[in-house]
Amino acid sequence: MKYYITTPIYYPNSSPHIGTAYTTIAADAMARLRRMKGDDVYFLTGTDENAQKIVRTAENAGMDPLTYVDGIVDKFKEFWRLLDISNDDFVRTTEERHAKVVQQIFTMLYEKSDIYKSEYEGWYCTPCETFWTENKLVDGKCPNPDCGRNVELLKEESYFFRMSKYSGRLLQYIQDHPDFIQPTSRRNEMIRFIEGGLEDLCVSRTTFQWGIKVPFDPKHVVYVWLDALINYISALGYPDGEKYKTYWPASVHLVGKDIVRFHTIIWPIILMALDLPLPEKVFGHGWFLSKEGGKISKSRGNVQDSFQLIQRYGADPIRYFLLRELQYGMDGTFSEDDLVEKLNSDLANDLGNFVSRTLAMVVKYRNGIVPEPGEDTDLEREIRDLSSKVKQGTEEKMLACDTAAALEVIWQFVSRCNKYVDETAPWNLAKSEDNQDRLDTVLYTFMECIRILGILCAPFMPGVPRKIKPLLGDTDFFKDWEQADSWNVIQPGTAIRKGEAIFPRIDVSAYLEQVNSEMERCVTQVQGNTGHQQEVNLEVSPSQLGNLQQMAEMVPLKEEISIEEFAKMDFRVVKVLQAEKVEKADKLLKLEVEMGGERRTIVSGIAQHYSPEALVGKKVILVANLKPAKLRGIMSQGMILAASQDGELEVLTVQKDLPTGAQVK
Ligand code: MSP
């Protein structure tokens, strides 16, 4: 069977984090399971690069958008590699293979009048990349409950996509295909939304140039969501690529709850307009929230360095935690202390201990050689039956995209295995000559249980079979899912090894001690930096350590000055007229600025943060009464103000269009 699974393509405006990792890890577990079942799997992920917010972020970093996203895309690729993600392709919407399909589709829709030209007047939320009508706004702000940020008024010539024409057909389709949108609560939400009436969608912008150009009217760029959704077929080589013919329609689009609407309304209508089949299922999972509440996201500043987390705990525990924590369709919470707790209880204690204690017994009682089993008893038969149920239960839960329930089913088997050790008490059997046959059976069953656990864990934690393989005589037992309920697979006579613990316990008290001493260090540092006693609650949870560390890194304050001393400084608004690089000086830019009719030359050390073009036209703040100084032979008449942190520089500007020469006080 063919199986095509996708993740959303991520905005590369900032580095990947734990919140965004869930979808990709869940899709990976599903893809791996289907591959092990012998299906023909295609697993796609990628990045959504043509967004207006990318232009903004890049501008603020003083970089051109492509150079900016190239750096972040590399981080995404590295992140997925470290998390053992087995995607078959990675699509970037800045790639030609994607752009040409978007242009082709835009033209096709235009030619059949499903896209038409008109004028857009309404609001736009750049963080959400969404158009809003006036009546939808809440207190004049973005109505998305997770956003609530400022929206911008747009009035521009635009192309529109005739969504209204398809609303009846879409509604019918959703009603006829109960599995199309899952979970049911999201399905009902979407039905209500469509019943409220669909408006035509604005699908082009003219106020910036970054993006895919409308081929027959290149002052327009294609609206980022129309562009992004097409990735699911452009990456397969639509319209006549072999992969497209093989894999489309997708089996599942796995997405977060915030973007179900785009995937179950805009995307199906695009496909209907093109006369293409719709994906079989769109599954909308919940979010990871921080312990203090609120979605984990870069803009909320509540994310921990995820690369550091992987380095500290490894990919498997993080994968396990995320997959197990997010209950079907609901939100979950992520915190490092919960991760440590789960690692210790489920992985080190339940799974890891079973593996190490049973291997140790084969070493102790049979010199590390797997014995020939004797007669089975009801106990062994019960375990065999359970393995079939667990195998089947896991498949069913994963088919429903319920990763937490799938792992719960597997952990029933883990618990049963541990109970079997206690019930059979091999240490007692070993004491008597009469029980040696029985001991053989028990030890053999242990080894088979380890093999089966390796298979069951493989889709979720690919590191587990890798670690178990050398312990079970180096045979790769773990590729075929069907073997998760076959028995007598391991050859008696196989030499096994004890090896290291597959999940070493994390010493919680040592971990907390470490966190506490780091917090104390940060508190002292913060107090030193700010020069006054700051109340810092030492009971704060380790998940807040990140914020504290950030505060501690603040550069210490300089000594106090009087108001008179401050009043001696003269800051003015000036406009940058020209900017160029200073030859043979990597860091310096030469600026020509205008201040109330007067022109000045300024040499500024910002060349590594701003391209000359990015500065021209900007209104910036000048220290206007600074004694002129010669830099690289150029007389610099003042200094431009910029904020800096961690080597990043951002030039200060004024929001309003103030006249140059205006005083800053
Ligand atoms: N670029 C669009 C998707 C286009 S798909 C054709 C986008 N990108 S995103 O980077 O903002 O988000 C990507 C996915 O990450 C979304 O599914 C979103 O729900 C998910 N998550 C972001 N933060 C999350 C959590 N804290 N928890 C779980 N998922 C979260 O939207």
TrEMBL record:
Pfam families: Anticodon_3 (PF19303), tRNA-synt_1g (PF09334), tRNA_bind (PF01588). A motif ('KMSKS' region) lies at residues 295-299. It is an enzyme of class 6 (ligase). GO terms for biological process: methionyl-tRNA aminoacylation. Residues 565-665 form the TRNA-binding domain. It catalyses: tRNA(Met) + L-methionine + ATP = L-methionyl-tRNA(Met) + AMP + diphosphate. Zn(2+) binds at C125, C128, C142, C147. GO terms for molecular function: ATP binding; metal ion binding; methionine-tRNA ligase activity; tRNA binding. The keyword Ligase applies. Binds 1 zinc ion per subunit. The keyword RNA-binding applies. SUPFAM superfamilies: Anticodon-binding domain of a subclass of class I aminoacyl-tRNA synthetases, Nucleic acid-binding proteins, Nucleotidylyl transferase. Homodimer. NCBIfam families: metG (TIGR00398), metG_C_term (TIGR00399), PRK12267.1 (NF008900). Belongs to the class-I aminoacyl-tRNA synthetase family. MetG type 2A subfamily. Is required not only for elongation of protein synthesis but also for the initiation of all mRNA translation through initiator tRNA(fMet) aminoacylation. This is Methionine--tRNA ligase. It comes from Dehalobacter restrictus. The lineage of its organism: Bacteria, Bacillati, Bacillota, Clostridia, Eubacteriales.
